[in-house]
Amino acid sequence: MATLLQSCLESVAPWLYKDSVAWTAVGLAGTALFGSRFFVQWLYSEHKGRLAVPPLFWHLSFWGSLVSLIYAIHLDKLPIILGQAALPFLHGRNLWLLHKRRNRIAGLAPATSSPGRRLAR
Fold first, then answer.
1. How far apart are CA 68 and CA 90, in angstroms?
2. Where do the structural domains in the chain lie, given as residue ranges?
């Protein structure tokens, strides 16, 4: 029985809805990537001696949420898809802001994002 997305996507991506050990591995990989970000942040904060968020945290957040979204689409369950859908965009935006900040610090980008508006340091 086709579900939410399967009826639309199965003709172009039949592999997406074939249950296998590989799909279980994809789901576990997404969970491991996303979950490991907390361990990385904790170690980084301990190293700094204060609460701190390393750039790796945002990379793990982005890739973990993207892999988890792909797995959610494989499962084809609306609550899981909706719970994962916005996360890659949010974490991707944080990566973009991090990239812009690094460029600004390196002198590769202007200090303002729009006329009259300074970026926070």
1. 14
2. 13-108
State the residue for tokens 């050990």.
21
pLDDT in tens, 4-48: 788 888 888 888 888 889 999 999 999 999 999 999 999 999 999
3-state secondary structure the chain: CCCCCHHHHCCCCHHHHCCCHHHHHHHHHHHHHHHHHHHHHHHHHHHHCCCCCCHHHHHHHHHHHHHHHHHHHHHCCHHHHHHHHCHHHHHHHHHHHHHHHHHHHCCCCCCEEECCEECCC
Question: For residues 120 and 61, what is the distance between their CA atoms, to the nearest angstrom?
Answer: 22
